[in-house]
Each structure stands twice: as structure tokens, then as C-alpha cells.
Amino acid sequence: MAASVLDGKVAAAEVRAGVAASVAELRAAGRRVPGLAVVLVGGDPASQVYVAAKVKHTHEVGMHSVERMLPAETSEAQLFDEIARLNADPAVDGILVQLPLPAGLDSQRVLDAIDPRKDVDGFHPVNVGRLSLGLPALEPCTPRGCVILAKRARADLAGLHAVIVGRSNIVGKPLAQLLLREHCTVTVAHSRTRDLPAICRQADILIAAIGKPKFLGAEHVKPGAIVIDVGINRIATEAGTRLVGDVDFDAVKDIAGAITPVPGGVGPMTIACLLDNTLTAWRARRQG
Ligand code: NDP
């Protein structure tokens, strides 16, 4: 039987609608609305597209948007100054520094400079630590989006075996924490994992966050599994280029029980969760 397709555009629109409704309530009550600042250093074309989408959605949900477009030759000291200004700005609740940064700028040092209470990407060590301790934290957006989509396939994930392929700090590791919180049994696989197909075939939930086009195929998927494809890979075709995931969708769609497409799966969830995190940050700062 064909897998049900987990539509990230629909799920993301629902998350954004919830955020927009909360922002509208604040506005109607005469409160200051949440503000999201996006910092882009340099002119990387893919980053410019992402930032434009973030700004557009920030406006659409009624939030205050701050954009800081800095030249590629910005020094680390100048970037720290900019972050310090945003940290101190009461109209800004969330700060996002678009990655990757140009060569010569140390991403971790830059992310560490963001006030953890405004770290809507959830990458600051304080938020990473709080998440792993099971404390309230600003949680990374893409992993949050993965969990929301998995729960659309099955509301209660407790007891399921989740296999995550990929152990990056931005996807694989935080996703493992979020799935543990959902009471899944979690396996994190990576490039040194032995017999990856056999491990993946144990998965009730299989998440691919690898960065290799169509890397997981039919031999990796247990019948009925929920398959979440985080990968975004641009491949050449006769007609130009197109985006594909880390999962071979066509090879897997009649084996899986539910599957996310690429594009239109996890991707749209990331910005939606970013906006939701900004609202969370607004609330948390007001609660002290
Ligand atoms: P990284 O390159 O940081 O991590 C890739 C992971 O895949 C590593 O842990 C690596 O293992 C593992 N891996 C590589 N080759 C193999 C292999 N042959 N077998 C098993 N595991 C392997 O990538 P990211 O986590 O940053 O991103 C992963 C994908 O997700 C990319 O396509 C990226 O574009 C996409 N992405 C999508 C987002 C969205 O909004 N939808 C957001 C973020 C990322 P090891 O650690 O051993 O090297």
C-alpha cells in the first residue's frame, strides 16, 4: 500500500496560523509584538533565499522584523558588536545568525555570543544543555519540525524505535533528545555505523539527516515505518537542477507507512518553528 505523504506545507501553515493568532491577540491588547532579528553576513545566494523567506513569514504572522545585512568582509569584532546591540534591544526577542558564515568567522563563537534567551535557533550551549537535561529550552527548529511531522503520522510515539541517520549538532543530536522526550527508543547512526541497512530496518521511525541524495532506499525501510527525510540536495537533471532528499522517495513510498516529501516536507517546518520559538522567547522573557 502506498505510504501517506506527510505534507510539511500544510503542517507549517498550521503552526504559522497559531503563531499569527497569538500575535494578533497581543496586538489587539495593545502589547508589543514579538520581534525576530535575522543577521546575514555576505551574499551567499542560498542564504539570501532562506533569509528572504524568513523575513516574509515574519511579516506575515505580524511580528516585528529586523534585518541586518552585513558585508562578507565583516570582522568577528564587528559581528559581536551587532549581536550585542540586538541582545540589548528590547524590541528583539529572537536573533538568528544565518549559517554558514564566510570563512574567517568562527560560527560557534558567534552563536555563543547570542543571549541564550534570544537564541531562537536553539544552538547556544545553554539551550543545548537545558534540552539534554529535560529543562525548558529554546529547541532547534528542524528537529522540532521532524517531531511534529512524525506525530501527524502517529500521535503517540511512545515505545517506538526511532533510528536517526546523522549525528550533527543541528539535526541528529537534538532530534535524539526530542525523541527521547517522546519516550522513543533512539538509535543514532552515522558514517562509521556497521550494517546501516539492518539497523535502519529496525526503525518504526526512520529519520535521514545525511546530506547525500537518495542515500536510503528500499533495503533500509521496514514495512509501515514513518520516514522523515531532512535532506536537501540539489542534483543536476536534463532540465536543469532539482531538490531531492536523502531518501529515495520512489523506491520507498510503497514500503513506508508515511513519508515526508522533498521539497515540501521538513523544509517548511523549520521557518514555522523559528517563528513559534520567537513567540516562546517573548513569553519566557516576560516571565523572567
Ligand atoms: P552534516 O553534514 O553536519 O551531518 C551529516 C551526518 O550524516 C553526519 O553525522 C555523518 O556522519 C552522517 N553520514 C554521512 N555519510 C554517511 C553514511 N555513508 N552513512 C551514515 N551516515 C552518514 O549535515 P546536517 O545535519 O547539517 O544536514 C543533513 C542534511 O539535512 C543536509 O542535506 C542538509 O541540507 C539538510 N538540512 C535540512 C534542513 C531543513 O530545514 N530541512 C535544516 C538542516 C539541514 P559522521 O558524523 O560520522 O560524519
From the 3D coordinates, which CATH architecture of the largest domain would you assign? 3-Layer(aba) Sandwich
From the N-terminal CA to the C-terminal CA, the straight-line distance is 51 Å
Reported for the largest beta sheet, the result is: 6 strands, parallel
Structural class: alpha/beta
Assign a percent range to the helix content. Answer: 40-55%
Basic shape: globular
Enumerate how many helices there are, as a single number: 10
Strand order of the largest sheet: 1-11-8-7-5-6
Ions, cofactors and other ligands present here are: NADPH dihydro-nicotinamide-adenine-dinucleotide phosphate
CATH class designation of the largest domain:
Alpha Beta
- CATH superfamily heading of the largest domain: NAD(P)-binding Rossmann-like Domain
CATH fold description of the largest domain = Rossmann fold
Q: C-alpha Rg, in Å? A: 19 Å
Strand percent estimate: 15-25%
Runs in which pLDDT lies below 50 for 5 or more consecutive residues are none
